[in-house]
Amino acid sequence: MKKIAVYPGSFDPITNGHLDIIKRGLSMFDELIVLIAYNSTKSSLFTVEERVEMIQEALGGKKGVRVDSYDGLLVDYVRSAGANTILRGLRAMSEFEYEFQMALMNRRINRNVETVFLMTGYKWFYTSSTIIKEVARLGASPKGLIPEIVYRKMQEKFPQMNKGKVI
Ligand code: ADP
After folding, report:
1. What are the distances in angstroms from CA 164 to CA 12, 149, 154, 160?
2. Omega prior to 13 cis, within 30 of 0
3. How far is the CA of 100 from the centre of ligand 1 (A)?
4. Rounded Cα distance, 81 and 134, in Å
5. Ligand 1: does its nearest atom lie under 6 Å from the Cβ of 115?
6. Among candidate residues 153, 146, 147, 116, the one with its CA nearest the CA of residue 130
7. In the chain, domain spans
8. Which atom of ligand 1 lies at the shortest distance from residue 8's CA?
9. Residue 159, number of CB atoms within 10 A of its CB
10. Partners of residue 34 on adjacent β-strands
11. What pLDDT does 93 receive?
12. Among 23, 62, 75, 129, which one is most buried in terms of CB atoms within 10 A?
């Protein structure tokens, strides 16, 4: 039986930290679905369509991974996709409590769905979509932390990046 996992998140926008989790996830699963899950508590910089497009381009046709979006219960999506695993990345302790809560809630909703965590690659420990948007807004250029396509799209949103320090 094919091992399929769903990697959910906001991906607003996708970063090299996310790509690292995807690459490593692909060595564990036959198929990975990167799922843009609508998050009612976050306002987004990019539309879902823009995020899908950026992820697809960043993946460059990599085999075994596809992108989708969903605004319902995550575990329902997981089952309907024929998967039984949720993949998440873990950075610091601050994330642990939220992730723990989500994993247990999802398990309560459906006991057959397990959440698997991968530790962040040390290079991406402090990389988050939020901090990338913040430094870009303030005029730094986070080129080394995001895929090329995301860099170009962010330059359109934040022209001040072009004059800033490249990090
Ligand atoms: P959410 O909005 O649910 O926090 P994100 O788009 O921020 O979603 O992230 C999706 C998943 O990717 C989460 O599990 C998050 O912990 C993980 N992630 C984000 N950035 C990194 C990173 N730099 N290294 C490892 N995992 C990461």
Report:
1. 21, 18, 13, 7
2. yes
3. 14
4. 34
5. no
6. 146
7. 4-127
8. 10
9. 9
10. 7, 67
11. 78
12. 129
Supply the residue whose CA is at minimum distance from atom 27 of ligand 1: 89
Verify whether ligand 1 is closer than 6 Å to residue 127 (CB atom): yes
The neighbouring-strand residues paired with 36 are: 9, 69
Structure tokens at 140: 């730094």
* Dist CA 14 CA 32 (whole Å): 15
Check pLDDT > 90 for residue 39: no
What fold does the segment set 4-127 form as a domain?
Answer: Rossmann fold (3.40.50)
Tell me how far apart the alpha carbons of residues 45 and 83 are, in angstroms, rounded to a whole number. Answer: 29
Give 89 Cα–ligand 1 centroid separation in angstroms: 6
Q: At what angle do helices 16-26 and 48-59 cross, to 10 degrees?
A: 60
pLDDT-derived band at 165 (thresholds 50, 70, 90) equals confident
Ligand 1 mean position, distance from CA 105 (Å): 18
Query: How far is residue 79's CA from residue 85's CA, in Å, rounded to a whole number?
Result: 9
pTM, entire model: 0.94
